[in-house]
From TrEMBL:
Residues 1-19 form the signal peptide. It holds the Pfam family Tyrosinase. This is Tyrosinase copper-binding domain-containing protein. Keywords: Metal-binding, Oxidoreductase, Signal. It comes from Apiospora rasikravindrae. Residues 120-137, 310-321 form the Tyrosinase copper-binding domain.
Amino acid sequence: MHFHTRFALASTALLSVSAAVVSSPVCQQDIVKDLQEQAIAVLKEKAANTEKGSSSCNVFNAHVRKDWAAMPAAERKAYTKAVNCLMNKPSKYDPDVVPGAKSRYDDFVAQHINQTMSIHGTGNFLSWHRYFVWSYETALKEECHYDGYQPYWNWFSYQDNPNESPVFDGSDTSMSGDGAFAAHNGSVSGAGNIFLPSGKGGGCITSGPFKNMTVNLGPVSPAMDGEAAVPSAFAWNPRCLKRDLSAYAAGKWLTSSNLLNITTGPAASTIETFQDELQGRFADEFLGMHAAGHYTLGGDAGDLYASPVDPAFWLHHAMLDRVWWMWQALHFPQAFTVAGTITILNRPPSRNTTLEDPIYMGQSNAPERPISQLLNTLGGEPLCYIYL
Ligand SMILES: *[C@@H]1O[C@H](CO)[C@@H](O)[C@H](O)[C@H]1NC(C)=O
Ligand SMILES: *[C@@H]1O[C@H](CO)[C@@H](O)[C@H](O)[C@H]1NC(C)=O
Ligand SMILES: *[C@@H]1O[C@H](CO)[C@@H](O)[C@H](O)[C@H]1NC(C)=O
Ligand SMILES: *[C@@H]1O[C@H](CO)[C@@H](O)[C@H](O)[C@H]1NC(C)=O
Ligand SMILES: *[C@@H]1O[C@H](CO)[C@@H](O)[C@H](O)[C@H]1NC(C)=O
Ligand SMILES: [Cu+2]
């Protein structure tokens, strides 16, 4: 793997982090590689010190989720083919209950819409989205014969020009490119506190594997200027997928200094500070890496409820899960704790989240599980994966 060859360089960079180092895109890559390497080293050490049967899940036999940029063309195409397959299979929802769910893909969108207010800014934010991505990956495999694993979008490259990224360059080995240019006045994010200037898109995506896709659900809470909400959350609203790739959001918040803060810096000290910093401090006009990824995509992906309509959602959330996974590896035994409440930003005030709280996926065919079963990606049942 390419990160092995650059590890020595990365270690040096990490020891001498300075403003100059952090602002260099090359070193941004090195820092995430170094954290990755540290996480794997810890997991190897744990595997070596644990007496377990050879069949139990560990870092050596776990499934591997890869960086999109490091995947060969054939693997990328197999992935987008499976996603298109899911978009062409029928929904399992009763059309009277969710009229906008026309495809199997839409079932996942509906799931997210339905639970939005109890899975963001809550104690289950990380575990809910981990299980959501896992259930989607499982559907791609079981229902669409995909034989790989969920790829991730590495936030720490191409921040200055996401349009050139292998994820968004619009080629047939990308996740489709930017939207067509459509004049608009940017997007409003961060619970109304943070304005994002418009990029070069704003209209329908015009290239790549999802060029012809039909979005059926949302927008429920559109962020981009000019977009109107549907009258009810599950209404059918067929239209194209819109994007407005934002170098502004990526360059400002998908940074090594923010990554270091939550993985090894002051915000890394507890699960509470980690997850809060990751999700932003909107009153401080700090978007955080979770929302920054959504607004780097822009367009439909900026809708808190219906953001999974953009198939890049899953690569973004895999990266988010990877950052949590790295934090977890570097913070045993705190790795398996939760903090936060069961309502969005504790509005209205609610009880604390517990490890026994159920995470359910409804129509996505993943059985309800307590949070405690979703904290360890090497837990074996159901999760057994690592990131490389
Ligand atoms: C939405 O969630 C509730 C539980 O909060 C559940 O009873 C209902 O079936 C869900 N609806 C859909 C469409 O998934
Ligand atoms: C953007 O805002 C300006 C000033 O408020 C307005 O004149 C213009 O029509 C807006 N453009 C669009 C595309 O909404
Ligand atoms: C999109 O639709 C057009 C017209 O129906 C068709 O010619 C084209 O092959 C489709 N492209 C993809 C990527 O499915
Ligand atoms: C790191 O995170 C802490 C906790 O949220 C925050 O107060 C601080 O401003 C962050 N530091 C940087 C450099 O972003
Ligand atoms: C909820 O969590 C907070 C912060 O972790 C803690 O201070 C508080 O005591 C907890 N509340 C209850 C009822 O356990
Ligand atoms: Cu979400």
